[in-house]
Amino acid sequence: MIEYFAHSPKDGYPAQTYAQHINGVLERTRRHASDAARYSLADGALLLNIAEIAAVYHDLGKLDKENQPILSGQKTAKRLPLNHADAGAAFLLDDTCPAVLAAVSVAAHHIGLPDFYKESIREDSMFRDDSIKARVDTALSEYSQIHSGNVSARPPIENAMPSGDCSVFLRMLLSCLVDADHTDTASHYGKYPELVDTIPLRPAERLVLLDRYVGTLGKSGEDDERNRLRSEMYTGCRDSQICENIASCDAPVGSGKTTAVMAHLLAQASKRGLRRIFVVLPFTNIIQQSVEKYRKALVFPDENGEEVVAELHHRAEFESEDTRHLTALWRAPIIVTTAVAFFETLAAKTPSALRRLHELAGSAVFVDEAHGALPAHLLPLAWRWINIYANEWSCYWMLASGSLNQFWEIKEISEQKLEVPNIANPPLRASLSAFEGKRIEYRANLTPQPLETFVEVVAQSQGPRLVILNTVQSAAVVAQYICEKYGRGRVEHLSTSLTPSDREKTLERVKARLNRANDDDWVLVATSCVEAGVDFSFRTGFRELASLTSLLQAAGRVNRNGEYGVSEMHTFCLSENNMLKSNPGVKNSAAILRKLIETGIDISPSLTTEAIEQELKVYGSKPIHRKLLEKEIDKNFPFVEDNFKVINTDTRIAVADIKIVDRIRNGHCDWRELQKHSLQIADYKLQELHIPPIAEDIYHWNLAYDDFLGYMAGIIQKFELKLLMY
To answer: How far is CA 104 from the centre of its chain?
Structure first.
């Protein structure tokens, strides 16, 4: 009997037979789809059936006589001569027994989900590869016969359509297939364990741990009123009885929101039978402090904290067989991540990005600082997804915010008025807001200042001081200038130019300095990454003009517990030069905050709704937020992925540590290690600086890197050398 293969021999591993791969992918796909289907309120059986069909036929084209010599190892080539996905799509589009959604997922399992309108006008070529269509059609019966002789599975082929949202269903379907396909391949090549134990959430038991942990807090001689309010907040949130699938929580800084909301989510997860909890922090925030707190509070003695509470700093997803094992997945029972990594996964059409999505079904999702988690123009589509996952996939959403007016009440975001219950009772919210009002006074100087003048103003203010800039580059330039003028001991620097590992060390140093009463003559220069999820309390704050939300969030890192009486929070503008550039991504929101400040209105969270409404109005007669909604409904997946960008910069993973570089090259690095020691750098910058690739979409940062400025040390050094040359 002739042996047929699905993957060629490599790195000492033998070729994988076609039967082994199809059966392995089918088994994993069934597992993923059935786990997600348990939480589907309408389309669970359909998801499982179509996923099984797609798994069985996804690699049918690998049986072609031109592909087999390469897959068996007789010949070598960088890619297969024939697009192997087309045959499976052709088989499943056959008029006698079509399974269109299965065909779509097979056609998309390497190239991603298409624009359905463009496909519809292609008529007979819909979801097919025109360049090989005639040849595949001729050989299709031969492929089918070989397949039947090697694979016994025969799932019934149906052509039903989902009763729920089709776009979300298709992403969920492709996620189940691709995760199974990528995992089976990585396992065959020894880069992923054959079996991975799923760690259960055990919400009721973890809630007992959290109660015990919270009982040890608040005994450090802090203000009695604040401790009383925190205790009331925790108990009230934990015991709040919510029947709806979307709830909210008004909680100013310092109210113990991190633990109170987690207690509520664990209680809800226990009640609803949920399997996972996501904590989503705004933009590219520093997430380590939240992770550290949850690992202390929620992990049993016999568990590994990294496996129970996963920290996902940035999107890391890879298509090639050599790097698939480095993709950051959503396997842990508790996942702390950023709005970039979370919401851009929901928007994805690319297989490697969608791979983790099926794990979202049946989860509780805590979106912290919900009014600031996303740019205003992305909120309408994000709100649509929140409702779909709540109503069709059993997700429970907690939208936490310091704003008493919530974004979902804005007509441009939600056409249909939806009552979102608040888990904090009105008297408690009133007490928390009253305490918040005593904490901060807002000041502003909107005239652009030279760097030297601005630093002088900062140095004369009461310390310790926090300065937040709009770009990674500006933060590094300001930090270096202060270091050169006043010495390294007078400045700390924290931004995403540092690896998560180095950010963690900087965080510990900053916390230690803030706890030293006699260490107050210094400044932390940072980016928006410190605006949420970081338990800092500085004496004075400075925030470069950006959005109202950013200003309010930054103010949450100043006089956090009211320990300084009343503190000042300054809004400032810097004069631009060759290294200090404005951030075009905040142009509209900054203009709205400028207008609010110039009209003399007192800055407060109650202005957030008005600011968001104004932002949505600046996009003109064809606003992007409406177009995104239309394209999502029309199933134009490429448009949605390309335009739903939380940060409008195309970034890539880069690694500075040569030891990690070598581990990646040798296939010994896992996704957790990559997350901890890697950087996210704009693709244009990598190309401009000729940074060499290590593997698919992973680069070796071979310029200067240090634990103070991170990769910006290399960029500043390069700029200074250029000045010397000219």
So the answer is: 26
